[in-house]
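Researcher: Structure prediction, please.
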Amino acid sequence: MVMGKPDMGKSTLIQYLLKCGLQQERRVAVVDADIGQATFGPPSCLSLSFWTRPKDKEEKDPKGGDIHIEGNCNYKNLQFIGALSPVGFLLQVVVGVKRLVDQALERGVDLVLVDTSGLVQGRTGFLLKKHKIELVRPNHLIVLERREEELENILTGIPFPPGMIVSHVPRTPNTRPRSLEERRIYRAKQFSNYFQNSRARWIYFSNQRKPLPGMHPFKGMLVGLLSKTGQTLGLGMISRIGRKSLEVITPLPTLTGVQKVEPSVIGLGKDFLGKKDGKLN
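Model: Predicted structure follows.
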């Protein structure tokens, strides 16, 4: 598990460790728990991806550096949270991360890498990291810091599992603070990538059910499309609202199996979707 304040290079380190694992012929799983600045999945979701090294994708770096290793993402699972910050959603995030780590271990991978958000300040940040570490019980916690003992105030209150290694590492070189606007643009790009090749599909509800009970759906609302067991099958954006139906824009090829629509606190505009000549790709 990698932990640190924003702009420490956590995701960069995770990608480096993934590359190292693939070089060693390991089967690697990555749990991306940064729902606001997700790297391996769309924002608003936790994601679990499985990686292996293809046998025919080893090349020399064109600049003469180390061998460049590409990885095949064989499977990806999403856990819809419906927010861009863990604040107010601590339980969903902590339980979701634990669930995804368990799923990775059940599939017999050799290495699980857990990327976390930059929320480490205050009581909320402490509780988030404390319960995440207690539930996941990582073998190795890597703490990225600008200066020595930068996060000592949060680490001293966490009861570390016996035998867990804690490494304090300087922040990744060449990282720089990103502005709020840069973060917004990055999220928009990630949403746009996810919604490429989407189309509008209708979801119909029975007479006993209403779309998003207890909520007031609105055009542009991001929703999670869940199975009967609560598994996140994909994401959608509401485009039209009927009395007993919703039209959602989604990249899912079919809505067969969607039994529940989970609302979010996020509204998406057209700028978040992949467009070409004013139309969805």
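Model: The first helix runs from residue 10 to 23.
Researcher: Thanks, that helps.
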